[in-house]
Structure formats: C-alpha cells, structure tokens
Design goal:
It contains 27 helices and 15 strands. By secondary structure, it is an alpha+beta fold. The mean pLDDT is about 75.
Length: about 1300
Amino acid sequence: MSTIDKLSVSGVRSFSPLDAQTLSFSTPLTLIVGQNGSGKTTIIECLKYATTGELPPNSKGGAFIHDPKLISEPTVLAHVKLRYYTPPHSTYIASRRLQLTVKKTTRSQKTLDGTLQSTNDGESMSVSSKEANLNKLVSDTLGVSPAVLDSVIFCHQEESLWPISEPAALKKRFDEIFEALKYTKAIENLKMLRKKQGETLAKLKAREPGEKRDKDLAEKKQARMVQLLDEIADSRAQLEKMEAEINSLAERSRERREQANSYLLIVNDLKTKTDELRIRKETLDDSKNRMDEELTESDDWLRDTLTQYEARVARYAQDLDEVKLQYQQHKDGLDASRKQLSEKLAEQGRHQSDKANYERHLESRVQLVQQAARVHSIRGYEGALDDRKVHTFYERIQRLLADKRQELEHLQTEYATKVDEQASTISDLDGHKSRYIQNRVYARQRITTCERSIVTLQRDLNAVEVDEGAKAILDAESKDLDQRSQQASQDLQKADFDGKLEQEETQLQQLETESSRLSRELVESTRLSDGRAELRIHKEKLSVKNRALTTLKGTWDQRLSALVGENWDPSTLDHEFRKRMEVKTRALEQASRERDDVLQQHKTAQANMASVKQTAEKREREIKKCKTAVVDALKSIGSDTELGIDALPGEIEEVEESIQTVKSDLALCGELAKYYAGCQKKANEQNKCDLCDRSFANAAEKSRLMAKLRRVLENTAKEEYARELAEHEQTLSQLRAVHPQRETYMRLVAEKKEAEKEQQDVQNEAASTLRRLEEMDDAVRMKQEEKQEFESMDKTVRDITQTYKDIVDAEAQVDRIETQQNSSGTVRSTEEITELQDQCAEQLKAAKNKISKLAGDRQHMRDTINSLELKRSELRNRLSHAVRQLEKKKDYQDQIQNLKDDIVKQKEAVQEADQDLETVEPEIAKARAIKDDIQRRGREKEKKAAGERDRLDSSVKELKMIDTNIQNYINNGGPSNLKNNEQAIDALEKSIRRSDDDMNALVTRSNKMKEEMASSDGRKKNITENLTYRKAARDVNTLKQAVVELEDRRAHEDYERLEGEANSLESKRHVKSANRGTIIGTMNSKDDELKALLDEWESTYKAAADRYRETHIRVETTKAAIEDLGRYGTALNNAIMQYHAMKMEEVNRIAGELWRDTYQGTDIDTILIKSDSEATGGRSSYNYRVCMVKQDTEMDMRGRCSAGQKVLASIIIRLALAESFGVGCGLIALDEPTTNLDRENIKSLAMSLHRIIEARRAQSNFQLIVITHDEDFLRHMRCSDFCDDFWRVSRDEKQNSRIDRESISTIV
C-alpha cells in the first residue's frame, strides 16, 4: 500500500537547473493549479519518468531538459527525485538524472546513473541503475506494474485519449495492463517444457520395448541354456541304443528280399492279364451305359433295321417346318400386341401418377384446411372433411381476410388521425416552449452581461481614491490656506495631529479586525453553502418529481380511473392495481378452465364423429371391395358388367350349363379319335383305306394318307375341349369364390341406413359443442384483453409509484437539511458578506488615506511653512482632480445602480419564463405521452391485424393453388382416361394370353416331333451300341478265363507277403537311421546353440534386466511430469481467463457507475469495454473496443462521439482501471480533466470526483492528483473538504517555472 510523499525537479523543461522546485503530495487530494504554459504537465512527466524511466512523447533530442541557451551554459543537468513510502516502515527515494550538452551544430542527451535509496527500520541501502533494473525495482516497490503507471496513473496529456484509439493500439495497451505477454510466455514455456518432456518420453518409450525384449530374451536364453544341457545328455543315451537296432533290422530285410524275387515273374504275368481284363470290362460297361435298352434280336436283324432309318427322319423334318411357320406367325402377332400393351401401360402409369397427385392434393387440401382452422381459431374443421366443408371453409376464410383488410385500413386511418391531432398539439406547445426558452436565455445573457459590466465598473470605482471627505478637507484647506499661512505655527499646535493620527489608527485597527471577522464568516458561509446548494438541489428535484407526478396523473388519470376506480391515490395505487390485476388474472384462468372443459367435450365429440365416420368409411371400403371383387370376377370371364353385382347367381348358372355341354362334346370327341385310329391301323396292316375300302396305288399315296391321319389325330378337338372344360371349371371356381363377398355386400348395404342416422346425431352433437366452444373462446379473449389492458399499464403504475416514493424521499431530505440549517443559526449569504467586505475595504482605504493625509499635513506643516504658496497651487490642482474623480465615481455608481435594476428586471423575466415553462412542459409531456401511447397501441393493433391478415392471405393462396391443381385434373378428364386405358389394357392382355396359349400348343407339338426324331436317332444309336457291346462281352470272357488260371497258382500272395516283410523291415531301418541322424544333428545344433547362447549372454543380456528397470522408471516419472505440466498449464490458462473476466467485469461496473453519475447528456446511457476472445495458436487472445450503449444497443464509441465525450470516457476508464489495478498503489493523476467538456459535464465530473474521494478517503494510500487551470472546477469539487492548501505553478521574472503553496480559501 505505497504512497508518494515529495517530488523535487530541477533542469526539466521550464524548471531552472539552478533552483530545485519541490512539492509534497497529501492524501486524499493534491491540487496543482496554474495557467496554460506554466509547467503543470511537466510535473506529471517527472512523476512518470521517476517511476518508469520513460521520457514523454516527442521529447527526443533533449526537449525534456531545460535549454542550455536560456542560461548561457553549454551543459544542463536535469535532476528528478521522488520519495515514497511502503508499509510497514520503508522509505524509498528514486533519483534520476539527465544531461544535455549543446555544441555549435549538435545536441547530445545522456542518461546518467540513477539510484534507488531505501530505508527500512533505520537500515539504509542504495542501488544504482548499473547494479540492477531500476525501473523494475521502483514498480515492484510501488506495488503496481509499469504499464499501469504509464497508461493509467501518470498518463501524459497527449496520450490521455488512448482508450478511444484504434483497435491495434488499444489491444497493445490492455495487453500491457493485463501483463498478457508475461503470462503468455509462461504458458508457452510450460508448453515448450511439456513438449521437451514429451520428446524425451517418446525416446524412452522407443527404448523401453527394446529393453523389455532384451530382458525377456535374457530370461528365455538363460532357461534355454539349462534346457539344452539336459537335452544333449538324453540324446547321447538314445543314440547308442538306436545303433544296435539299425544293424539288426538291415540283416533281416536282406533275407526277406531274396525269397520274394523267386515269385516275381508269375506275379508280373498275372498283373498284365488283370490290367487288360479291367480295361475290357470298362469298355464293356461304357458300351452298356451308352445303350438305351438291351435288344434281344439277332445281330442280322439289327443290321437290317439300320438301313430303314433315313426315310422316317425326312418325314418328321417336313412336319416340323410347318409347325415352325405357324409359330412365327403367332409370335409376330404377339409382339405387336405386347408393344401396344407396353404403350398402354406407360400411359396407365401417367394416368395413375396423375391420380396419385390428385389424391395427394385432396389430402393436402384437407390438412391445409385443418391447419388453417387451428391457426386462425376457426372451429368445426378438426376431423375428416368432405368437399362441401372444404368449400365452406374457403368462403369463410376469404370473408375473414376481407374483414381483416378492412379492419387494418380502419385502424391505420383512425390512429393516423389521432397521431396527427396530438402532433399538432405538441407542435403548438413546442412553439410556446421555444419562445419561453428564448426569453429566458436572452434574460440570462443580459444578466451575465450586466454582472460583468458591474464587476468592471466596481473595479474602476474601487480604483477611485477620492471621496467626499477628502474633497471637503481640500475645500477647507483652500478656504483656510491664507489663515494657515499666517498662523502656521499656531495651527500646527492647535491641529493636534498626533491625537488625530492615534484616533484614526485605532479606527483602522477596528476596521482590520472587522475585515478578518468577515473573512472567517465568509469561510463558514462557504462551508454552509454546500448544504444550501444541496437543499436547493433537493428542492429542484422535488419540484421536478412533483411536475412529473402531475404530468403522469394528467396523462393516465382517465385510464387508471377506469381500471382501479375514481379518486385513486398514488400511495396505494400499486397495491390496488395489483389487487385488481390479480382479480382479472383469476377470471382469465377460470374462463380458460371452462373453455378447456368445453374443448375437451368438443374433442370427445370430434373423436366420436371421427370414429363413426371411420366406421362408415371402413364399411364403404368393404362395400367397394366386395363389389370390386365380384365385378372383377365377372369382368375376368368377359361378362357384361353393366348388370352389376346382382348378376352373379345368373352367371354361375350359365357357367355350370357350359361345363355340362363341354363334357358332352368331350365324350363324342373320344369316339371320333377311336375311329381315326382304326383307319390308321387298317392302312398299316392291310395297305388299304377304311373309308373307300381300296388298296393304295403306291407308297406315296399311302404316305399322304398316313400323314393326314396323323395330323387329324394330333389336331383333334379333344385337347381343345379339355382346355375349354378346364377354363369353365376355373371360371366357376372364381365365381363361387366371390359369392361370400356378394353376401357381405348385401349385408353392409342393409346396415348403412342405420349408421347414417347415428352419424347425423354425432355431427349435431359436435356442432353444438363447437358453438359453445366458440362462445367460450370469445369470453377468454375478452378476459385476456382486459388482463392485457392492465399489463399495458403496469410500467406506468410502477413509474407513478416510484415517482411518489422519490417525492417522499426528497421531502424527507429537504426537511433534514432545513433542520440542520436551522440548528446552525442565522448565517449571512456569501453575497452579503462580500458586499460588507467591499464596504469595509472602502472604509479601510479611506482611513488609510486620512492617516496618510494627516501625517503628510503634519510633516508638510513642519517642513514647508515657507512654501505655502506652492502648496496652494498644488492644493488647487488636487481639488480639481478630486472634483473630477468624484464626478467619475458618481457616474460609476449610477451605472452600477442602473445595471442592478436591469438585473432585477431580467431575473423577473427569467422567473416568469420558468413559470411559463413549468406550465407548458407538463402539457408537452402529457401530449407526447398520449401521442406515444396512441402510436404504441396503434402499432400493436396494426401489427396484430397485419399479422392475422398476412396469415389469412397465405392460407387463402395455398388453398387456391391446391384447389386449382385438383380442378385441372377433373377438367382434363383424369378418371375417365384412367378407366378407358384400363379397359384397353384388359383387352390386350386377353389377346396376349390367347396368343400365348396357341404358341404353347405349337411348341408342345414341335417338341413331340423333335422327341420322335430324337428317339429315332436314339434307336439307331442303340442298335449300334448293342452290336459293340456283344463283341466286347466275348473278349472279356476270354480274359477272365486266363486270369482265373493264373490266380489258382497264388504266387502273388507269397511275393507280396515276403516283399511286405522286407519293405517293413527296411522301412523300420530307414526310420531308425533317420532318427539317428536327427538325434546327431540335434545334438550338434544344440551344442552350437548352447555355445552361441553363452557368448550372447556374456556380451549382450547379462545387464538387460537392470537396463530395463531403469528405463521403465524414467518412462513412468516422465509421464507423471507431462501430466502435471499439462494440468498446471490448463490451470494457469483458466486462472488467467477467470482473472481477465473478473477484472473486465469490475472495470465495466465502475466505469458504468461513473458514467451514469457524471455524464449529463441523454444520448449515451453508459459505456463499457468489450473484450472479444479469439483462439490463436492454442491460446486465448483478446481484442478490445470501447462501446457506448444507446437504448440497449452497443456501438463502437470510436468515430461516433464528440471530443468532450472522448475526454470524459477516457477519464472514467482510467479511474476505473486505477481502482481495479491500483490496489497496491492507490494513486492517479488527472492532467487538465476538463478539456473539451461543457459546463454541465465539468460540474458533474467534479461532483463525481468528490464522491470518489469521499468514498475512498479512508484508504490510507489513496491519492488523487488534479492538475488544472479551471478554478471553477475546483469549486465544484468542494476541495476544501479534503485539503487546506494547493500548489500553484507559475513563471517568475526569468520565465522559469516555480511551485508555491497557497491556501485553498483563495480559490474556493
């Protein structure tokens, strides 16, 4: 909690290097006063230089140092010393020196060694700038950063507007104040350290798996070496045993092989015969498999049959060509029908798509109607809707739209007329107000002019030294001059000048005593004038509040009387208003509950109606479904569907009769087929025709008849009749299948009339509840409007109540101050005391003149008795001068009196204008309030009506667009087009089915022919295969006999037995030998492996476990360090952000309070500093801007405010920053704070500073330094409450700056 005590300056700017000037700083206020150019700002520059080492801006080249040319010296030494205290008992003296040397053509500035002397509990020490960073030491001991010292506490006048500077410079200032660079470097260092630790961890992690592998390998290799030693010993024992077994097996194998060689020739012959027999059998089996059947005829008959095969194949080929030709004709017709069908199906798709769109439009229209009904609160359209209801709704909503348009036009016209009337009234009142203000301004200007003239005349009057007494003395001297010339000695003795002088000196002392008493009384009156000023302020505030209350009453009396009753009282208005509004709220809630009950009943009725309608729709769908099924069944059999569903029984009877007819025809067709078959048989057996009973002339005639009979038998109508019978039976089954649907249809049609009556009852009930619901909606809307009427007056009621409370508080303050004034006794005003002081001063002047005159006369009579003639001449001159002076004095007095009379008249004019303004301002306020209320209510109602109109218009347009699409579909013949296309598709599908049936019959016939041809080929092949099979069978029998003879000798069994035994023994020997080699190789490899393991163990893995343990420990500790660094960095960043947010909130709070207390304008509500965060490089950075708030709207202050607003905003921001960041050093210096401010804001700023000092004067280290030339500003600050003297900076006769202490009473 440091405080500065004293500053010594010499050789800086206009301060002489030969005479050091010193000033002391007190708490809580230090005043430095002086004219422009006297050197006041130099004090701030010296304070800043002493604490930060920073020279002022634009001071390069020695501009900060006293010019050596002014003292005719080549070198000037500048010296700045600052003494300050820090708790508990430390004293510091910072000393800095500069040297400026001027040569013929150059100037050189040099910074000499600075020192910081400290005294702590009697121990002293000194540090120079060579030994340490003096700037850091000073800022550390002061307890505040250099940035705060530079930008806030000791801000230079040229840089005092930095809060309104460009964004880059503003960001730099705030970053320095928040010391963002230091914290950013700390975070960067943490990140760098964490990165390095991460790199170390990566290296260790890369090493750790290798170290772990080495440790694991070392353990495995050690275990492997022990295992190898045991395995090598076991292998040696096995090897010795295996050598003996191998020798025994080799001997036994040799014996068995010698015995087997004797049976080898017989075995080879048997094998050859067996292989040949196997091949022959396979050939025989292949021949048998290739045969279709095994024939029993002889070989000769089979060879004759092969020669007749070609003639039959030719006949079948001719018939097959005829079938193919018929098939191609049917195929061409089928392709044409399918092409037409494809075109019709595509057309069908388009028609179905149009129908789907039509149905979607119908659904969308219903949904849109329901949605519009909900939006516009039109009841009765919640459930399913038919076309009649849709068109009714469309007409209804169009009527609503027309009504809303008329209502909106009526509202606009009505409120425009009312607003114009009020605007005219306001314009007239503003004209009266302007005249009154102009009169008042003119009167005040005249008063100011008169007062200035009186001051000038009074100064001239006081300069007149002659009064009536002096003139009388001169007259007496003139009359008695001759006598006194003659009797000079006698007159000298008789004049008693000594007594007169003593008497006049006594009177002079009394006058001086009276003057001192008046001065003390003036000080006391000045002290009490603050109370009177405060009393006047509270009375003015009380008057303003009374006028505001009167205006509010006059404006809102009619509406409030309608709401809370006549003769309402502001003291009980809020309670009565809340009570009435609570009643309206409860009434609204009750109406809403009743409306909800009716709504629930309506929803139940709607649900019942929907259920009944859904049942009816379901019944209709079922009726339609049953009818469609029956009609489709009738249509599928080609029946005339014009007869309808009742024709089903007749159709079933017709189909049954057709089935009986077809069955009879089918029976006759069988007998005809038998006859043709007999004809064919007779032609084959007897070579004659059964019809004409004659023999065939040749084979060609017989062939033609046989072909004709075959065609007749193949094309017989039996198949057609069978197919027709199947079709009739299928038709009958289809018709019988839909018979239950017909029964259902008849039953549902019978139930439909009763259901329609029930549906009508439900619709009547829904309509009844709908009417009740609409009535309840109107009631709720009325209650809601009544409540909204109360809510719209809520702010007005709060304003009236608050104004009444302010009036009560102001009256209490006036009573309190008047009581204090009365208790202090009667004290004359400062004007009366000043007037008495002027009179006393005039009497003092007259007394002094009289004493001087008496003394002069006495001396003159003593010394110049002989020169009375000369005295007479001088006396005449003096008498003439006195006459002129008295005439001039009287003229001055007359002018002053005339001006005072004019001032009285102008004051009366001001009072009259004020009275007129007090009368007209409530009328203007009332008229404007009424106009604003009319505009507000008009805008609200117009906005509401326009919104409803727009919503209705939107709904009408959407309905119209959908209805147009629906009507276009109907007008374009959509349903008939779809029906006609479906009929055409059915006809084409029937034609295609007939063509398919004909083609299938032809395909069946063709396949039969091909099968017969293929079977003919098969019979030919079968005969050939039979001949081949018989030859192969004979060869197999021959080989079988030879194999049986060789097998009876059984030589192969003995060979195989002996060869098997020899092979088994040899195999065992090979296995044993292989095992022996394996064991030997294994032993050798294990020896080599053991040797290699021993070498590798000694060279690589002996210390692997210790290395892994060390690396693992370093990995874990590095991980923990990285995690700790990450947490610390995060915590530090969060703490910085939290600190920044807390400080910005504190600064904005203080700045806002100071602005609202200080700024007297109405265009800016408050100011604040906006800090926008942005992430750069993984860290948060802030951009700053100073904003002003106008009607809850934030705007950048830079470029939008005046020079005075910039100055005031900069001062307030610096005060806020000083209070927030200067806790350790409660110091701030304001250099010319009234620059560019008008009188009202100067006075307001002074009062705010007074309140700040009053609030913080208890803080021991709070020091406010105010440097100004405006003494009125100091009077408004009431500086005498905080200090008894001030420092005046002026220029001496050599134009060097000097600092003098003066009493505060000389300026306040």
